[in-house]
Amino acid sequence: MAKVLITAFEPYDAFELNSSWLTLVELTRDLPPEPRVTTRLYPVDFSEVRERLAADLAHDYDVALHLGQAPGAARVRLEAIGVNIGGHSGQHPDEYLPLVKNGPVAYRSSLPLASWSRELRKAGIPAQVSYHAGTYLCNATLYLSHYLIELQKLRTRATFLHLPLDPVQIMPRRDDLPSLSRQQSAQAVRWILEAMLQPGHCETV
Known about the structure:
By secondary structure, this protein is α/β, with parallel strands linked by helices. The protein has helices spanning 19-28, 46-57, 113-122, 137-151, 167-170, 182-195, and strands at 3-9, 36-42, 63-69, 76-79, 81-83, 106-108, 127-130, 157-163. Strands 2-1-3-8-4-7 form a six-stranded mixed beta sheet, sandwiched between helices. Helix 1 (19-28) links the parallel strand 1 (3-9) and strand 2 (36-42).
């Protein structure tokens, strides 16, 4: 049976909730019988995430799906590329540093993100491929996953899904931001899990 790791993040900054965790909790209410899913909640901390990733990926999953929220996004963004740079909102971009000294400039997911995106839209779920996961922890998770997979010679393939805010996160705010219900976000992840079981469906497209 295929094994899949799905991770989400704790709340951060002014957000008391994180749509990635809301989505993951919703997903676990109705998981398909296959593949076998392991879930993790990660702290919003670069060093701790790197340690947790190294420990979790050592179990050699078939696929690692990392979830994170993207305030301002109106659709599920399937992140194709992780770059070797990282910094937090309190830093000036000039102060950002490589995630891995002398590491590759970038990694690209080998999963069929374009195909998944097209099929998700056909299913009524707003989705698109993205080629820039930012320079914060979401990008770091994607980049470090590929780096650790390569370093440990694992079979795992990885991507990162940026999710819009959940409507419950919008209600207390004064500004207008797009949102997508956790049910729809979980539906997107569930569709991907089920698609993985189709013969040849995880071939790069």
